[in-house]
Structure formats: C-alpha cells, structure tokens
Design a protein that fits this description.
homodimer, alpha/beta, Rossmann fold, six-stranded mixed sheet, four-stranded parallel sheet
C-alpha cells in the first residue's frame, strides 16, 4: 500500500491546475450568526462537472504516461466519480470506461455519456460489478482509477484544502463529509503538513455511520445496507483511506436525515448555491455541535452540486 | 430631473465598496455550448441580502449627511429593495421605514425585520400605498429612497458592470433583466463611458412587456396588471430610467413564462447557483435569439437569489 505524500499533493496541484477551477469560498453573515462560528464554504460544486472528484480524477488521468493513456482509464461508479473521470478523460482525449448498475439514474448515465464516457451496465450486485469490471478492463486495458482508495485520487482531492487555506488565511477546523474517505484523506494529507493546527472533522449521516463506528471502534466496520438521502456517502472505508481516518481525523460527528435536509435548505436559501444532500452533512453536524465550534474559523467543503431538481428531498414533506 | 453621471458611479463605488461584496463571475462550458456564445454570469445573488439592489441602497444610505442619517431612510417596496435598504441602514445603524402591502409574502416581511427595517402595512393599492407612505415620511422625516427612479440608486447599480468589465477583460454584450429599469440604467451609465463598444440588452418577460413596448413606441407605456413569475419585474419605467432606456439600450428581447422557467432550471442545474425567476430572463432571451449572440462574449447579470424553496415554479408542472 503506497501512502501518498505531501509532495504528491503538490505535484498533483501543478498537474491539475490547468484543467480545473480554483473554486471560490463563500461566506454569509447570516449563517455565521446561526452557527455561532465563522464559516468558509469551499464551493467544489462549482467545478465544471459539479464535484470535487474532478481533482483526483484529473490527477490520475493527466499523470498517465502516453502509452497507458492510449488505453485510457476505467472505473466502477454510479456517482460523481464516474462523470468526473469521464470529464478528465475527455479533456485529455482518451477513452474512459465506466461500469454502472443498470438501475443507476438516467441522469447519471446521461452525464457520463455527455463527457464521452462509455458505460457497460451490470446487475446491481458486488459480484456482477466485479465480474463485469474485470471483463471490461481485460478488453480495454484501461487503467483502474478507484473512486477513493487510490493514492493519485487522494493526492488530487488534497489540492482542495491547499486552496482553501490559501484563500482563508488559516482555519481552526475543516469539516468535510465522509463516505469512502477520499476527500477526508486528502484533507488530512494536506493539512497535517500545511496547517497542522487545523483540525479535520468528518461529518456522516446517522443512517450510514459506518465510518463513525469504525473511528470509535478502531477498525473498519462495514455498513449493512446503509440508506440515506446523502447518496454520495454510501460507500465503505478502504485500507488507504482508513490510514488517514484512523490516524489524522480529529473527530467525527453525525446528523439525522431531517437535520441534513434542513441544513441543505438553509444553504440553498442563504448561501444561494445548489449543492447535494451529501454536502449539507457538515453544516448539519456543526449546528448539532455548536459548543465544539463556538467562535472558531471553520472551513466547510461543499463537495458537489449534482441534484435532481424535480426530486428535491423537501418536495415530499 | 438630475441625471447621474459616470463620476457619480465612481464615487458610489468608493462609497459602497467597504459594505458590499465584489460578487464573483461564474462560467460554464456546458452553458456556452448550449447558447453558442461565451457567457459570464455576474452573481449578484451572492450579496449578503441576495440582490444587486444592495448597491444602490448602500450608496443612498452611506451618502446621507449625519443630520439626515439620524432620521434614516424610507421606501415603499415589497421586494428586494425593501430588504436591501433595511440591510444598508442596519450597517450604518440608522432607521429604515418600509411601507408594504399587508398581502406581501411573510418571508419578505421577515427578511426586512431581520435587518431591523420597520414595516408599516398598507392596502394593496397605489392610493393606499401613497397615503401611507406620505404619513410615514411626515412622521419620521426619513429620506425617500425610490427603488429605481433615484440618481443615487442608479449610480449604485452601475457599480455592478464596472466590476464585471474589470473581471472579464471586455464583453460584446451585457444582458440584464428590466423591470423599473434601475439595473439597466446603471449598466448604461457605466458602459457608455467605460466600454462604449459593449452593447446593453434588456430582457423582459412577455407577460410584463411594458418596457419592450415603450422601447419600440418611443414613449413610456404602462402595463395593465402584468402577471409573471418574474415578480421582480412587474414595476413600470419612470422618467429617469426611461432616459437611459430610450437613449442607450441597444435592443430589448422578451421570453415566455415557460422559457423563463426552463432557463431557471438550466442555470440551477449547470451553474449551480440559486437565483430568482427574474434573473433567468436574460438567459431565456439569449436562447431565443442565438443568432444575435453567436460567438460573442456576453455578460449576464444574475440579479437576485431570493426564492421560496417550497414554491419553485416547476413544482406545479
């Protein structure tokens, strides 16, 4: 297991800079008053494909040597990693193969195809996904870029908090959502060197709290069929992300589904940015744990902004 | 009638700079492809009170001498001007009186009160509003800041396109929505001096097209009970804004209600910013008039972001 270093992150930033946006940081006096601390929202939803995952994906794609690049990249994902990897591959002009369950939302498939990604559908089971992916990879020779358990991906995600620290002049905390742990790992990687006084907090839905339970238990605990509207956070930790989570995360907090939806509405209304339920989990946990953040300078990673506007979570309530 | 000058706008910018944000410009490769031109969205919805009107309001409020400031400001509005004037008055620590029909949405009243504005309710008629306002002004001595037909307000709104030109390195067009004409007038005021080659386009809902018909007829035509989801654009032109509209607007385009809702969803989805129906009118008209903008650099003023998330226009469809 190769653990990415701070220099890997710096190299990643040089590599991806020409291809991604330096996303803006948004603030709101109203939200500061509401939360009792000073909030700095890093708007990763403002990347062209709408998610921070374009950082890690671009680092992997633009780091390939020419020979491998001809064969392209491959992954399995039905989320933002699939579209961001397709987007990065499109920028470099190389093939991207994506294995996705046939049950994935049409909008996700459309986005991958808009960026030139080629989808091979599988059954919605781990066995079918692994078999199908092995076949696709054998046929295409595409380089496997895992959604998060890949040193290139983690180094790429780490470029986000490098920008955030440069944009804010120092923070007491950075809070990011945790699913597989790619963003949190990149955040730990960067801040442990660049701003060791800044504490990394992971925020997780109560209904998919495998990372929280793992963190408290001291070993990876897999979740049994997690179910949350924060659909970017369903996947489990892996060895590489567990390394960062277990060693460098300062604390982990959870929030209920109702709290996540409330936080999402608050951000849409007062920050006026469109972000996914997953991206609302940090604010939900901050509002749940005001004492821990009182009066502090708190960075919040707004991880993505890809939502179905016709199925907003408060439309049913 | 005093017509504000370019120097008034420059003075306004110096005056309001410490109190407002220099709002960011957002771009999207996807939207550029869709529209066939290069779009630069000036995100005025990212001001603390969520609308460009904080520029003109702040210019009026911070331009008062100390004696007048003690008596504060007063206006009649049930929209963004009311909350932005209250916000600016709160920043200076002076009174703000707002006359508003009792039928105005509770959310609008709440926002004005959150910023310390004092609301006096009237009946939803012009007569009642004027009578009530005269009474409030006589009692308080508050300086009347009209929502748009005021040289201080127009000079303040003009600071938006000054920033936009500085942020974009030149544009062929700037498209802004038109209601009473405050933003359009400020845009004309600034661009006619700073970037005379940049053409100003006004965008209006078909169902509230009094400015369009006035522009074509060569004199102000008042609308008879306009009805559109772009509720920021219901008010008529006045003498001062007509001066700019009739002399300096290059062209005016309209869009249907369905086109406005479509454009709003496109911006929410692909630009990932929360903006009002009124702010979607420019993109709707650009998509309606592709030939006019083909291959050009086009600035778009995203005027505001105050919406009721529980009553989005596509929720009923």
């Amino acid at each position: 297991m190769y653990i990415p270093t701070y220099d890997d992150m710096l190299a990643a930033h040089e590599r991806v800079k020409p291809h991604i946006r330096c996303t803006p940081v948004r603030t709101s006096h109203y939200l500061n008053e509401l939360a009792g601390c000073e909030l700095f929202f890093k708007c990763e939803n403002f990347h062209e494909p709408g998610a921070f995952k374009v950082r890690g994906a671009s680092n992997a794609v633009f780091g390939l040597d020419d020979e491998q690049a001809k064969k392209g990249v491959a992954t399995h994902s039905s989320g933002n990693h699939a579209s961001c990897l397709s987007y990065a591959a499109m920028l470099r002009g190389i093939p991207c193969n994506v294995v996705m369950p046939h049950t994935a939302p049409q909008a996700k498939k459309d986005t991958v195809r808009r960026y030139g990604g080629k989808i091979t559908e599988c059954e919605p089971s781990t066995t079918s996904r692994e078999e199908t992916f092995a076949k696709v990879q054998a046929e295409t020779g595409g380089d496997f870029v895992h959604p998060y358990n890949d040193p290139r991906v983690i180094a790429g995600q780490g470029t986000c908090s490098k920008e955030l620290i440069e944009q804010t002049d120092g923070l007491d905390f950075v809070v990011a959502p945790i699913g597989g742990g790619g963003m949190i790992s990149g955040t730990c990687l960067t801040l442990s060197m660049l701003a060791p006084e800044t504490k990394v907090i992971a925020a997780e839905p109560e209904q998919a709290d495998d990372a929280y339970r793992s963190f408290k238990a001291g070993h990876i605990i897999a979740d049994d069929a997690p179910k949350t509207i924060a659909d970017g956070l369903l996947v489990p930790l892996k060895d590489l992300t567990w390394h960062f989570v277990s060693n460098q995360v300062h604390e982990m907090y959870t929030a209920s589904e109702a709290e996540i939806v409330d936080a999402m509405k608050i951000i849409w209304k007062h920050l006026r940015v469109v972000m996914e339920p997953s991206s609302a989990v940090p604010l939900a946990t901050i509002l749940n744990n005001r004492d821990a953040f009182a009066g502090k300078r708190v960075g919040v990673i707004v991880t993505g902004g890809n939502v179905d506007l016709d199925k907003l979570p408060w439309m049913n309530s």
